[in-house]
Structure formats: C-alpha cells, structure tokens
Amino acid sequence: MEKVEKFWQWFQDHNEQLIALGDLADKEREELLRALQYQLTKYCDGLGYELGEPTADGRTLTFTAEGDTDLFRYVVELVDAAPDLDWWQFLAFKQPKGTELKVHFDKMVFDTRKMYFQQLECEEEPEMLGLRVALEGGERQDEDFQVGVYVTLEALMGEFDCATLVGYMETVPLPDEPFKAGFQALDDLPKFVEWFKNKRDE
Q1: pLDDT in tens, 113-166
Q2: pLDDT digit string (tens) for 78-99?
Q3: Which residues contact 67 (CB under 8 A, 6 or more apart)?
Q4: DSSP strands (E only) in the chain
Q5: Fewer CB atoms near the end CB (10 Å): N or C, the chain?
Q6: At a CB cut-off of 8 Å and minimum separation 6, what does 103 contact?
C-alpha cells in the first residue's frame, strides 16, 4: 500500500475519535494529535497540519509544508487523495487569515495595522516579489524577529503565495510618516499580490 493510502486508512480508522476530539480527556486528545502527526511524518517528513475550530458544517484540516516548496507536491498529493468524509474539509497549505491581524510568534506580537510595505525589484528573479517591511523594531536582524515578520506575511498571503512569490524580504524601522515615505499599509498586501500576479501573467 502506498504511503498516502496508509495515512488515509489510519485517518478513517480513527475518524470517530477525531470528530469527538473536543470531548476527549486532555491526555487522550494529546495522544491522538501526536499520533496524527506521527502518521503524517511517516507519509512525508517535514509536513504539519492545522486543525480549524469546529463549526456547524464540520472542521477543516489543513496540511502544510511549512513553506518548504520542495515538499509542496506531497501536500497536493495528500489532499488530492483525501477520502470524502462527512464533517471534514481537507485543505492544501495554510490559507490567508484575512487582514487587521495580530500574529503571535515567540512571545512577539505583530499587528498588521501598524506595519507597512514597499515593493522591491528582484533583478535576478523579476517574476518574484521583493518586499521591504517597515514596523516598530524593524532594525532588528535576529532570526526570530525576521521569521515572525515572514509568518505575518504568510498569514496575510497564504502559504502558497508567500513561498512561491516572495523572493526577498527586508525589514526597516517605522518612519514617522510611512505613506509620505512611499509605503503602503500592510493590510493592502493581499490586493497588491493579486495585482502583481495578474501583471506577471500578462
């Protein structure tokens, strides 16, 4: 049996438990979620998942390659092979989470309403998008801060677009008057990305 089939067989075997996840004791729930991640890693090391909150229509299970484009094909393969199960919606890649976000990362909070961006040209890869992000603390170059900014971009754009479109990113301190300095509100980035994609594909 192929690895992808083994994963979905395990999922179907535990479907009732996964549906009742919120009713399980903490230890049992944690063990089940660890088992889900273990089965996913057996299928493809490097993949992760996100569980949406339950709604009247069911629950989403999003599979992610954590931005690693080398693993994108495995995410697509997995979702393409998903069984048709009541109460579940299976999604490939982290989806955009909207705008006016507060993204928490490693004890830091990134408020998109207080962040701005400029487009930068990627000379070596003109089909890719360069971004200069202005925010409070933007002079910081430590890895955790930079990753936090990237995670914020991913929350606005979605995993696929962020990983396949953003070729370069840098951060700078927040100017006193961002708009006069040529910046746009970061919450306008999703619209800008759609414009960029359409222009690129012309």
Answers
A1: 999 999 998 777 888 999 999 999 999 989 999 999 999 999 999 999 999 999
A2: 999 999 999 999 999 999 999 9
A3: 150, 154, 159, 162, 163
A4: 48-51, 59-64, 88-92, 102-105, 108-111, 116-120, 129-135, 166-173, 184-185
A5: C
A6: 109, 110, 112, 148, 151, 152, 155
